[in-house]
Amino acid sequence: MSKLLPVPSRGMIPERDIESPPVLEAIHLGVDFGGLVAVDDFHLLIGRTEISGLIGPNGAGKTTVFNLLTKVYQPTRGTILLGDKDTAGMNTSQVCRAGIARTFQNIRLFKDMTVAENVMVGLHHDIKYHIPGAIFRVPGYWRQEKAARGKAKDMLSIFNMQDMGDIKAGGLPYGAQRRLEIVRALATDPSILLLDEPAAGMNPSETAELMENITKIRDVYQIAIMLIEHDMKLVMGICEGIAVLNYGKIIAKGTPAEIMSNPVVVEAYLGKKEA
Q1: In what order do the strands lie in the sheet with 85-86?
Q2: Cross-strand partners of 42
Q3: β-strands 51-55, 224-228 pairing
Q4: Interatomic CA distance for residues 229 and 238, integer angstroms
Q5: What rounded mean pLDDT belongs to the chain?
């Protein structure tokens, strides 16, 4: 695990990423829903290959932040930079093509499609044939379909799911559906992968395996990963930088050790001790 170094006036990223531009930066980010301020003055900096965590009590605004970064919600104020690109005016599909992929709290697979077909949906950027070619099944169509299916199988091997390609996604156990959603997101070739509670519903052994695989994904694909998670063993075990959100505002940032010993964080989770 790389130690965090400061980026002048902006934040901290892992030492190994210090020579590269941050993959993602949020500056004074906020969103209002009517008179409700859901997220306010949110700042975040993520290194090119950093594994980072966003934690906080239920209702703190964590998923809202992911929705802002992926343009499910358009920010009321602030800036989101993806590399050197300002994402202002982009919609969800444009942000995905630009390099942000995500999973969701509630699994959103195409359950009547096979495992391989779900991953192939994420490989749409590799598909070059047009509608007439697909209708008439021209040779180019079959070549690209074969290549996409082979790539999907290779990607599924990350989670040892390469032999499940022909199974309907809806027939998978819950933990396997979670893993499939991660693979489908990876298939879009992101520069940063956002995981919203990836360990939800997993047993301890599945969670331990997930921790290993998140690190493996980072190392193999050389991408950044940011996760929302309530399993503190997972967060503290693999995250290099952690931001803590409460009532839509960042209340602490730092390494796992710094966050665990921060009294403001302890108070946010456990409440203030009575005098």
Answers
A1: 36-46, 24-33, 77-82, 85-86
A2: 29
A3: parallel
A4: 12
A5: 89
Tens of pLDDT, residue by residue over 19-73, are: 999 999 999 999 999 989 999 999 999 999 999 999 999 999 999 999 999 999 9
Q: Is residue 82 a contact partner of residue 91, using CB atoms and an 8 Å limit?
A: no
Element spanning 102, H or E: strand 100-102
Rounded Cα distance, 247 and 256, in Å: 21
Residue 114 DSSP code: B
Which amino acid makes up residue 223?
Answer: I
Q: For residues 30 and 77, is the Cβ–Cβ distance under 8 A?
A: yes
Q: What are residue 261's phi and psi, to 5 degrees?
A: -100, 5
According to CATH, the topology of domain 1-99+190-275 is Rossmann fold (3.40.50)
| Residues facing 51 on adjacent strands | 225
List 38's β-bridge partners, or say none.
none
Hey, what are 267's tokens?
Answer: 């108070």
Distances (CA, A) of 249 to 36, 55, 62, 165, 183: 13, 11, 10, 42, 31
Where are the domains positioned within the chain? Answer: 1-99+190-275, 110-189
- The pTM (predicted TM-score) of the whole model is 0.89
CA distance to 25, 28, 87, 91, 237, per residue, from 250 (Å): 14, 11, 22, 25, 21
